[in-house]
Structure formats: structure tokens, C-alpha cells
Specification:
The structure holds 2 protein chains of 2 kinds.
Chain A lengths: L2 E5 L2 E3 L5 E8 L7 E7 L6 E6 L8 E3 L7 E6 L4 E6 L8 E8 L8 E2 L3 E5 L2
Parallel strand pairs in A: 2-11
Antiparallel strand pairs in A: 1-3, 3-8, 4-5, 4-9, 5-6, 7-8, 9-10, 9-11
Chain B lengths: L3 E4 L2 E4 L5 E7 L7 E6 L6 E5 L3 E2 L7 E6 L2 E6 L9 E6 L13 E5 L1
Parallel strand pairs in B: 2-10
Antiparallel strand pairs in B: 1-3, 3-8, 4-5, 4-9, 5-6, 7-8, 9-10
Classes of the chains: A mainly beta, B mainly beta.
């Protein structure tokens, strides 16, 4: 079964840090581009960033709203992607989805169920 | 940044009827356009990529069309399970971000 399972969400104070994990199974993780997408309560989807495969030099790209604060990485030996979030702001509060897709065209054909991040004092 | 605009924001349609959802890009994205369906409390699900190719397991009543800046998702005969929010997303490779539209809520009339 194709599956992505996110973990690591929780409550954090403004200015704090959190690291999310995304464990993959049932598909060729190492060949896939991996994305993070977030959704604030009652709002639409916002693309956060992506990491390409080893064959594409693990290249990363980020939305302007998180650039310089968030870092995406991956460990192909563990079939896991990560989202390191630093200097968190209240506006980062959202459900964070991990999603996978083909290595070149950046649509997302596999999605996790999401993990909730709440930034509040 | 490419801005994606979906219309209408809400669409009321009766079961068995056709639904037509629109998505417009602020500049050409060629055919690099995907559609997703999201039901309450669930993750999005890929329906269409490449503007017109159905994803694996997606029923034939879902079809996509368009290129450049104008795109359409058509659901030919609405089933009860089709009432949801639909998002378009452009993934023109460079530069990012790969932006989503604001969504169209398809509700039962």
C-alpha cells in the first residue's frame, strides 16, 4: 500500500522550532520529489517547499513565506523526508501535509494525512 | 509568482448534473496544471495532471481541459461522493512556488 505518514506536530511558542517527519512506504521514495503543503484552519492549500531526488542533486525550493526559516531534507535509506521549522510565527499554524510526486513534474500524487502545528504562547 | 484564480468560489449542482469548474493562471503555465479534490478532514487527492490526464483510479466522469492560462475541470454526472472542495495547482517548473488556487466548493443543490 502506498503510504505517507507525518509525525512531529504539536504546540510550540512563537520563535520556537519543530521538526516534522514523513515516512514513506509502498512506492519508490528515492526517485520521487517530496513536498510539504500546509493548510490553515478553514483556508486553502499553500505549497511550502520541495526536495528533489538524489539524481537531481537533492535540490530544494521554498515559498517566500518560509524561505530562510524552514529547511527540507530527506534520508533515502530511511524512506523519510523532514521539515525543519525555525523562528516559528503564529501564522505558521496549520495542518502540514507531506506529499510525493514524480521527479520532474511537480504535481503530487501521494499524500499523507497531515500533522497539526500550532504556534501560540 | 504565478497567481491561480478559481471560479466560482461555490458551485451548487444537483446530483446527476454536470459541474464545470474554472481555473485561470496569471501567466502561461503550458499544460503544467493539476486538479485535486479535498473532502472535510481528509488530505487532498490528485484527480488530474498535465491539464487533462486522469490520475490512477479516477473515474472517467472527471475530465480536464485547457492550456496556457485557462483550464476547466468537468464532472459529467455528479455522484454524492463528488461534493467536496476542488483546487487547481500550477507546477510550471521554474521558478517556484507551485501555487494553488483558492478552491471551489462544490455543494449539493
Amino acid at each position: 500500500e502506498v503510504q505517507l505518514v507525518e509525525s512531529g506536530g504539536g504546540l510550540v511558542q512563537p520563535g520556537g522550532s519543530l521538526k516534522l517527519s514523513c515516512a514513506a512506504s509502498g512506492f519508490t521514495f528515492s526517485g520521487s520529489a517530496m513536498h510539504w503543503v500546509r493548510q490553515a484552519s478553514g483556508k486553502g492549500l499553500e505549497w511550502v517547499g520541495r526536495i528533489r531526488s538524489k539524481a537531481n542533486s537533492y535540490a530544494t525550493a521554498y515559498a517566500a513565506s518560509v524561505k530562510g526559516r524552514f529547511t527540507i531534507s530527506r534520508d533515502d535509506s530511511k524512506n523519510t523526508a523532514y521539515l525543519q521549522m525555525n523562528s516559528l510565527k503564529t501564522e505558521d499554524t496549520a495542518v502540514y501535509y507531506c506529499a510525493g510526486g514524480p521527479p520532474v513534474y511537480y504535481y503530487m500524487d501521494v499524500w499523507g494525512k497531515g500533522t497539526t502545528v500550532t504556534v501560540s504562547s | 509568482e504565478i497567481v491561480m484564480t478559481q471560479s466560482p468560489a461555490t458551485l451548487s449542482v444537483s446530483p446527476g448534473e454536470r459541474a464545470t469548474l474554472s481555473c485561470r493562471a496569471s501567466q502561461s503555465v503550458s499544460s503544467n496544471l493539476a486538479w485535486y479534490q479535498q473532502k472535510p478532514g481528509q488530505a487532498p487527492r490528485l484527480l488530474i495532471y498535465g491539464a487533462s490526464t486522469r490520475a490512477t483510479g479516477i473515474p472517467a466522469r472527471f475530465s480536464g481541459s485547457g492550456s496556457g492560462t485557462e483550464f476547466t475541470l468537468t464532472i459529467s454526472s455528479l455522484q454524492s461522493e463528488d461534493f467536496a472542495v476542488y483546487y487547481c495547482q500550477q507546477y510550471n517548473n521554474w521558478p517556484p512556488p507551485y501555487t494553488f488556487g483558492q478552491g471551489t466548493k462544490l455543494e449539493i443543490k
